[in-house]
Structure formats: structure tokens, C-alpha cells
């Protein structure tokens, strides 16, 4: 089934409304995904930065790195109302930086849904009272979980840091707490389709191993630079080590003035590669 792009942007959102501007759309048509479950599709909604909502072929909703209300490019109506995200069956966070942990605790409580994340990130979130222990699941790199029927999530390496900044209500001052190490996720859906959400990462040699061993169909790769891979590094890794069959969705750019990488630069660096670049605009959904 050919991937089709559907814009799900509220009427109030326009290119002019985005201070950082709108990215050009990819012109390449992605390849077919594997056979779906009972005719279902995989839907990927990009909400800015690394925040992604996935609807699985079985109809489950997975939310990753939900920096929503504080997101600088989060589209309306999500930015002002977390309920606009709809039901959430699974929450995943790659690390504790605010632009990733974001609204995860609030969403876990709202939907009575467990938040899955790196063990040493979850521990301070519980001990500080940010989230109840019963709404968390701790795991770590190379650890796999089956949080929903037919869905498997494996934590994999990411070359990045992690620290939790928490506002102490007793002092009204921000505190910094050690929060373990960042991870990425290999998410295998009910029909075998695999998505690699890299989280925040620099280029590292084990990307080749991860690609060869887990064989992701679709990769969500940061390209902003400064804190993560820039367009050239990301393109080199995708072209030479990963080569996902369905394509690559660039994320983690346009939301921070220090992360200056652009979709156009990434597309230029990917020239000559058979891997399809699936450029998205915040609020857009792709179907697989």
C-alpha cells in the first residue's frame, strides 16, 4: 500500500503562524510497508521536535517524547489542550531533557497509562513525586518489553546526555537531577513493521549494528545539530549504515535557534541515496 500524506492541521495553523517557517514537502513517493493487520494502517503524526504520535495497525496509540504544551512549534489545538491528542495507550520517553519528557507525567495521569522510559530517568521522577510508581515501567538499553498485545519495544543506544530539571514547589526553584542515559526505541507493531525512533543522538558506529540486527523499516532521525546529529552526519549514517526500506523522517529541528539544521540541507545530503526522505510539517500525518 502506497504511503499517502494527510494534513491534519487545525484551521488556525498556517505557515505564517509558525515563527520558524514551514519546511518544504518531500517529493519522493515512499515504498510499500508490510501487509497490515486486518486492513489497518500505521499512522505517524509529527507534533514538533521529537514528539510523535503513532497509531498502530491494530488501532493502539503510542506517544513518544510528548513535548506538547511547551513545544515551540506544536500546532494548535494540541498546544493548548492535551485532550486533543485523544486516547493514549502507551507513553515512551527517550530521556529527561524537557523537550522530550515534556507532558509525559500529565498524560500518564490523564489516561491512567504507564510511562515507559530509561530506568535511571524513571527513578527520580518517582522519588520526586512527579509521577506515581504504578504509572511507570523502568527498562534499559537492549531491554525489550511487550506493553501492548502484538507490540514490542526495545531500548537501544543513543549517543546523548540526560538530566532532569524539576521545579521544587517548596522553594519555587529549579533543581537538576541525574537522570541516567538517553536511549532510542525500536518499536515493532502488530504487523511486523518496525520504527526506529532515535531520540536525541549523535552519530555512532553501533547504528550499523542496530540496523543490521533489528532491521527497522522506518527511521525517525534528529537533524538539528548542536545537541544532536546535524543534516550531514544524519544523512551519512542513514546512507551508509541504516538504509531503511520505507524511508527516514527527519525530526528535532526548527524548534530551537541553536539547532540550525534544516530539511533542505538534509535532503541535499541525501542526494543519490535510494532512501526516501519523508519531510513533514508539524501537525501532518503520514500513513503506511
Number of strands: 16
**Could you tell me the strand content as a percent range?**
25-35%
- What CATH architecture do you see? 4-Layer Sandwich
Mean pLDDT, all residues: 89
How far apart the termini lie comes to 7 Å
- Total helical elements: 6
**Proportion of residues in helical segments:** 10-25%
Please give the radius of gyration in angstroms. Answer: 18 Å
Low-confidence residue ranges: 1-38
Write down the overall geometry. globular
Q: Which CATH C-level class is it?
A: Alpha Beta
Q: How many domains, as an integer? A: 1
Please tell me about this protein's structure.
- The protein has 288 residues and is α/β, with parallel strands linked by helices.
- It has one domain (40-276): Ribonuclease Z/Hydroxyacylglutathione hydrolase-like (Metallo-beta-lactamase, Chain A, 4-Layer Sandwich).
- Helix content is 17%, strand content 26%.
- It has 6 helices and 16 strands.
- The chain has an 8-stranded mixed beta sheet. Strands 8-9-12-13-14-15 form a 6-stranded mixed beta sheet, covered by helices on one side.
- The radius of gyration is 18 Å and the shape is globular.
- The model is unreliable at 1-38 (pLDDT under 50).
Amino acid at each position: 500500500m502506497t504511503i499517502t500524506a494527510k494534513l491534519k492541521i487545525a484551521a488556525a495553523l498556517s505557515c505564517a503562524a509558525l515563527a520558524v517557517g514551514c519546511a518544504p514537502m518531500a517529493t519522493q513517493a515512499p515504498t510499500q510497508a508490510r501487509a497490515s493487520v486486518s486492513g489497518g494502517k500505521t499512522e505517524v503524526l509529527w507534533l514538533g521536535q521529537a514528539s510523535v504520535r503513532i497509531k498502530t495497525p491494530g488501532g493502539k496509540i503510542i506517544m513518544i517524547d510528548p513535548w506538547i504544551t511547551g513545544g515551540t512549534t506544536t500546532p494548535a489545538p494540541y498546544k493548548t489542550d492535551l485532550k486533543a491528542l485523544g486516547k493514549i495507550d502507551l507513553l515512551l520517553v527517550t530521556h529527561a531533557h524537557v523537550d522530550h519528557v515534556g507532558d509525559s507525567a500529565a498524560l500518564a495521569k490523564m489516561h491512567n497509562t504507564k510511562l515507559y522510559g530509561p530506568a535511571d530517568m524513571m527513578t527520580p521522577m518517582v522519588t520526586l513525586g512527579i509521577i506515581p510508581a504504578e504509572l511507570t515501567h523502568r527498562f534499559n538499553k537492549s531491554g525489550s518489553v511487550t506493553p501492548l498485545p502484538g507490540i514490542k519495544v526495545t531500548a537501544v543506544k543513543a549517543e546523548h546526555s540526560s538530566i532532569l530539571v524539576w521545579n521544587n514547589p517548596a522553594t519555587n526553584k529549579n533543581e537538576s537531577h541525574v537522570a541516567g542515559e538517553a536511549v532510542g526505541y525500536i518499536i515493532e507493531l502488530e504487523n511486523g513493521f518496525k520504527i526506529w525512533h532515535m531520540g536525541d543522538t549523535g552519530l555512532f558506529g553501533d547504528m550499523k549494528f542496530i540496523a543490521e540486527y533489528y532491521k527497522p523499516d522506518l527511521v525517525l532521525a534528529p537533524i538539528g545539530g548542536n545537541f544532536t546529529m546535524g543534516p550531514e552526519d544524519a544523512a551519512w549514517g542513514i546512507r551508509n549504515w541504516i538504509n531503511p526500506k520505507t524511508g527516514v523522517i527527519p525530526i528535532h529541528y526548527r524548534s530551537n535557534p541553536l539547532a540550525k539544521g534544516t530539511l533542505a540541507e538534509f535532503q541535499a545530503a541525501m542526494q543519490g541515496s535510494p532512501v526516501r526522505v519523508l519531510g513533514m510539517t508539524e501537525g501532518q500525518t503520514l500513513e503506511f
